[in-house]
Write a structure and sequence with these properties.
The protein is an alpha+beta fold. It is built from six helices and nine strands; from the N terminus they run H-H-H-H-H-E-E-E-E-E-E-E-E-E-H. Bound molecules: zinc ion.
């Protein structure tokens, strides 16, 4: 597996600082678990964050604040490298309780397009879904209205940005418009995370508009 498309610097910094939302954090953690390059970048960002904190003048804080701050550090998702047992990223494996893609109860949205919604904690914003799109399909050109991450887990798609295969993550900025085409041969399964719930509807709406190539 050669990963070509990575998380951008802003996402790495937010992830390391723990300010990325839950859905995006899971997608980022899944990519990081597959990608030594981004793991190194996160470690560097964390070290940088530590240095900045060291430079700040210390202020006395209450024991309660200190305890809750230290406790919150433990809550952060720490991705582990993929184990040899399964090629599914470890953070996703945990969310799916060890089930494989074939065992999931996919909801069919259109011919060749199925969705599986992943659980997030109660107050989390946005959504986290697995998308399964048949090979050879193409999506209409669409833009990206907010923060979203798309991680390829199986198969591949191509767009004007390049080819996205297993392990590649599309961390596109808002003005990127693209028209992905799923490669022939294998169903493409992606992990799709977004902060804005309504945005997915828009994306899905566009996704479900008449496809080219079917
Ligand atoms: Zn990477």
């Amino acid at each position: 597996m050669t990963i070509i498309h990575h998380l951008d610097d802003a996402t790495i910094l937010s992830y390391a600082a723990g300010t990325l939302g839950e859905a995006l954090s899971v997608a980022a953690a899944c990519h990081i678990s597959m990608c030594p390059e981004c793991r190194t970048a996160v470690s560097k960002a964390e070290a940088l964050g530590g240095e900045i904190l060291d430079d700040l003048q210390s202020t006395a804080v209450s024991d309660v604040l200190r305890a809750s701050t230290l406790a919150s550090l433990d809550d952060k998702i720490v991705p582990k490298p993929v184990t040899a047992k399964s090629d599914m990223p470890a953070p996703l494996q945990r969310l799916l309780a060890g089930q494989g893609f074939a065992q999931l109860r996919w909801r069919k949205k259109a011919p060749g397009v199925s969705v599986y919604e992943l659980p997030l904690s109660k107050n989390a914003k946005g959504s986290l879904k697995l998308l399964s799109i048949a090979s050879g399909m193409s999506m209409l050109e669409h833009g990206h209205g907010g923060e979203e991450l798309t991680l390829v887990l199986q198969g591949a798609f191509k767009d004007k940005v390049g080819r996205f295969a297993r392990g590649d993550i599309a961390d596109l900025d808002e003005d990127t418009e693209h028209c992905p085409i799923i490669e022939e041969g294998e169903t493409c399964i992606c992990l799709y995370a977004t902060e804005a719930p309504s945005h997915f509807k828009t994306f899905l709406g566009r996704l479900l508009q008449p496809f080219l190539g079917i």
